[in-house]
Design brief:
mainly beta; Ferric Hydroxamate Uptake Protein, Chain A, domain 1; Immunoglobulin-like; rod-shaped; 6-stranded mixed β-sheet
Length: 384
């Protein structure tokens, strides 16, 4: 732009041009406040057909009209301007865009349970609003308002729950955590009680035979659970729960942006059921007593140029005790009759999950990824 105005200055010094021609430049301001030339702007004298158009550099040269000193500059999408010309040899005109809109607020509503129309299979998604309807307290208790999934007790002594879909037992339903193997193997009997409800961001339920990409169990359907991620979590979240049976829970979520590319989330859960409950007076506990400590630390990396990574470290310690009322493990364990019948289920679980992927910036539909999962699951039970 500096070269344009140097040319204008040199030309303006010519007395001949000063008498017969008018030189000018038309420009606009960009987002950074810099001058940008407008090519093709219309320049003409008011009330006449004498005019011209600006060149690629925004410069125009027009013959003067005797007795007419009003010059009009117009351009599509910009406010026209009328300039008063006296004895000056050159002018500089700024046009302002008409495309200024007032603030617009768009509001929408989506049901708490909806079908994913972008998916090629029949998938129903449950978001946090649906989980609020059944706020207590883990994954096994999150389907009470959903007619697609049934959760039933497999036995009263241990309080074990099992998911049923399309009338088939839990072994025929695949339960995954963020498309990674979740509730399976040794965790199949108790696993759906190891995922606190406050950690869940959404649940995708696929009815009928699903893909075998992530496992072979999805004969009746697949349930995929998405946990809270740093980009979706509150900075600090605290949740507590107490009921009339003495069940107590405390959940904490803490999220921080460590750097421009790294973010981390801590998910902490602690629960206990210390009170023996026998409402039907049959001499056996309706639900086992016990306590659980659950911890997850998640790290998310986004390079900004296509590389994405996630790392999760998990730890679980769960202890349950059931059987007849009055059973005391220290006193009655391994003693035989006539001591009360009792049971213990102690679980300790370590898990590490890593995901690495790359999305081609110029071809966002192309990507590749690597998923790794390591688990150490210790399950110690006693019945007798």
């Amino acid at each position: 732009m500096k070269s344009i105005f140097v040319v204008l200055l040199l030309l303006a010094s010519s007395s001949v041009l000063n008498a017969q021609k008018l030189l000018g430049v038309v420009f606009e301001k960009d987002d950074k406040g810099k001058d940008q030339p407008l090519a093709g702007a219309n320049v003409y004298w008011l009330g006449t057909s004498i005019g011209t158009a600006t060149k690629d550099n925004g410069v125009f040269l027009i013959d003067r009209v005797e007795g007419n000193n009003r010059l009009i500059i117009s351009f599509t999408g910009y406010k026209s301007d009328t300039v008063l010309v006296t004895d000056q040899a050159s002018i500089k005109v700024e046009l302002k865009s008409e495309r200024y809109l007032e603030e617009v607020t768009v509001q929408g509503w989506r049901p708490s349970t909806y079908s994913d129309i972008t998916s090629g299979i029949n998938t129903v998604t449950m978001n946090e609003n649906e989980l609020f309807k059944a706020a207590c307290c883990n994954l096994s208790e999150s389907f009470e308002t959903n007619p697609s999934v049934d959760v039933a007790f497999t036995d009263a002594l241990t309080g074990t729950k099992q998911i049923q879909m399309l009338g088939l037992s839990g072994a025929n339903t695949m339960i995954s955590l963020e498309n990674m193997p979740g509730v399976r193997g040794l965790a199949a009997s108790q696993g759906i009680q190891f995922i606190p409800g406050t950690w869940i961001n959404s649940i995708q339920v696929t009815k009928g035979v699903g893909s075998v990409v992530n496992g072979h169990e999805s004969i009746a359907g697949q349930i995929n659970v998405e946990l809270k991620k740093p980009q979706e979590s509150d900075k600090v979240y605290l949740n507590g729960y107490v009921n009339n049976t003495g069940r107590t829970e405390l959940n904490t979520i803490f999220t921080t942006q460590v750097s421009k590319k790294w973010a981390t989330t801590f998910l902490v859960h602690g629960s206990m059921r210390p009170t023996e409950l026998d409402q039907n007076k049959d001499g056996f506990l309706d639900l086992p007593t016990g306590q659980q400590a659950n911890f997850v630390n998640r790290w998310v990396y986004n390079s900004g140029n296509g590389w994405l990574a996630q790392v999760s470290l998990k730890y679980l310690n769960d202890k349950k005790q059931g059987g007849q009322t009055g059973y005391n493990a220290d006193r009655d364990k391994f003693k035989g009759t006539p001591n009360p019948y009792g049971l213990e289920i102690n679980t300790e679980r370590y898990e590490a999950v890593a995901k690495l992927g790359y999305q081609f910036p110029s071809q966002p539909y192309k990507s590749f990824g690597l998923q790794l999962n390591a688990i150490r699951h210790s399950h110690d039970s006693y019945f007798g």
